[in-house]
Amino acid sequence: MQFTKTYNTKNEIWPLRLALTTFLCYLMSLCSFAQTQETAADSVDNDFVIASLVVADPGDVLYSTVGHVALRMQCPSAHLDYVFSYESEAVPQKVITFLAGNLKMGMFAVPFEEYLSIYKEEQRGVHEYVLNLPLEVKRNLWRVCDEHVAQGANLPYDYAERGCAFSTRTIVEEGIATTPGTTPDSAGVTTLPRAIDYGTALDSLAAINRRDILYRNLAVSPWTRFFIMFICNGSATDDVEPVEHIIMPRDLVDVFRHARYNGHELITEPARTILRSDHTVAPHWCSPLLVSVLILVLTLLGLVLGRRSAQSYDTNSNSQPILKRIGAATTYTLLGFQTLIGLFACYLVFVSDLVCTEYSALLVPFNVLPALCWRWRRYWALPYALILVAWIVAAIVWPHVLADTPYLVLAAALAAVYAHQHFEAKQKMNP
């Protein structure tokens, strides 16, 4: 699932199409000749075309924290070596477009050495897994990849159903399903299976939803997980077919290792390391959990000091004690924080077309209603605080990841603020 890596090959697509089409015509003619000449069929080695997965190790920036997977197609005798990879427009240059859900993506064909240079520069490892497919399937797979490149980068960006692992799997499945011989002939006979036999390879992914899988794989990048868990809700939690749970590069490799096609394992050879990683993702000392706990502690401290000040406040004095100002500042700071995040959450759910933002459980603690109804808080502050507490408990006991832990801590701080507001309003009404 690579978010922003874009190859500036727009001007190279048409020459590339021509080269690939010419090459494929050659392959198809060779295949046709082989069908009419038995000797020709035996003379073409299965390694005439090599198909493999290339997997890049995780990086530091947002788009690279789960790594990346693409399809490498080679014809050594013709000196052709390309990586077919689904990529999007650059998110850092189009953040508003991304959040609005209007980003575009598509498949690009990149010369292998050029593709490799990107990860060499980032000091990230790259590993290759050769696919054990019949020659006719690999020929057809190259044709399918060429067709997807020709479509251009005009697909809506969808990291749930067009992420790198999801797209690579579907391309391989399409290449298999459309290969001549996988459909019955006039006698009802097929020479090749039409689909991959996954067997029990998907069992480990079937019990959790796609959001849980994403949460688990982002453990080494807490700030990235904090952000992604905010924008990735909605359909990411829906029940889908087990095969659609393959959204991580490493999961795709693991599933393919245990899958079979045409009676053989799909990956039989050990991984080949093309680039060794000189880069490690170092944990950041200032994590979202640490920041949220600090906010909770400061909130409780500010509310307690403000409460004590209010209890000892001389109503005949024209000066307001500094401690009471701290309590008020704490309340309004948290209210402003909640409102800003709530505006962003409401935009994602009600305005944006970004995938996986159709609904969000985070709208319970983060919304704009408290700010809009602040004048009448004495009526709703305590019920809302109790709702927040119930939401926290539900998130803890829920079998799936409802919210990242820092959001639960922040919700606890908000619950404390609104409970304090209730008792403060009650005290003013009954001095």
Q: How much helix is in the residues?
A: 40-55%
Query: What is the strand tally?
Result: 9
Average per-residue pLDDT, rounded, comes to 83
| First-residue to last-residue Cα separation | 59 Å
Please state the structural category.
alpha+beta
Return Rg in Å: 28 Å
Shape: elongated
- How are the strands of the biggest sheet laid out side by side? 6-4-3-2-1-5-9
The number of helices is 15
Largest sheet: 7 strands, antiparallel
Q: Strand percentage, roughly?
A: 5-15%
Query: What's the SSE pattern?
Result: HHEEEHEHEHEHHHHHEEEHHHHH
Low-confidence segments: 1-15, 28-42, 315-319
In short:
The chain is of the alpha+beta class and 431 residues long. Helix content is 49%, strand content 11%.
How are the SSEs placed, and which strands pair?
Blueprint: H1 13-36, H2 38-43, E1 50-56, E2 68-75, E3 80-88, H3 95-100, E4 104-111, H4 112-121, E5 126-130, H5 135-150, E6 155-156, H6 164-177, H7 203-206, H8 210-217, H9 222-231, H10 249-258, E7 260-261, E8 264-265, E9 272-275, H11 288-311, H12 322-350, H13 369-372, H14 377-397, H15 405-429
Antiparallel strand pairs: 1-2, 1-5, 2-3, 3-4, 4-6, 5-9, 7-8
